Amino acid sequence: MLKIIMHGCNGKMGQVICGLVQNDAYCEIVAGIDPTVNVQNSFPVFASPQDCTMNADVIIDFSTSSAVKPLLQYAQAARIPVVLCTTGLSEELLHSVHEASKSIPVFFSANMSLGVNLLINLVKRATEILSDANFDIEIIEKHHNQKIDAPSGTALAIADAINEVLDHKYTYTYDRTKEMKKREKKEIGIHAVRGGTIVGDHSILFAGKDEIVELKHTASSKEIFAVGAVKAAKFLVDKTPALYNMEHLINE
Questions:
Q1: Among 28, 35, 192, 226, which is disulfide-ready with 17 (CB 3.0 to 4.6 Å)?
Q2: What is the pLDDT of residues 189-199, one digit of tens each?
Q3: Which residues are catalytic?
């Protein structure tokens, strides 16, 4: 039985993962960590990682960026692998993630959906084919009105994948109202839409002369991210210290 600590257990995604694990014969959540401790759960909930007294095989994190560093410190001290699903991390926090992966296994992906990671692979292939044909590249991401970070971590991951193919020669443009001028050739436009209850929608436009190629992924439920997180936990538990992502899981 895989013993899981759910970090951010009382958040929306935390509750989705708790429901999913409840029906998984291979896993159980032995403890939760969340500043909101008055929600009824079938396991003990601690206000902070340092308060947690339960042993576990792996931690799944769906929280906020401000909670990531204390979690990594706790995980390193307790020698527990971490599936890190929180996005919108600063350069400083990303450095902390890399440092933590030297002593414990860390799974970090901008998006936990298998479909999104397939989309990224398709986008890279499209970039290889279309970049020499003068296609402009624009990314549009849409999320619910409660999402804090913008653009989404997935949109940035898509842009980075494209730029990798383009030898990192392109810049990112987030707001075209700041400077009135024509679009630069070597730029990738990234646009964020926030509204309603949109779970997640990412479109990549390759706009050429007289033709447009569009690749798109739409998430209809948060459960797709929960499924990916639990798969990652099962994947990570026996690994050696290193930084892993969804590509490692897919290839295995």
A1: 226
A2: 999 999 999 99
A3: 143, 147
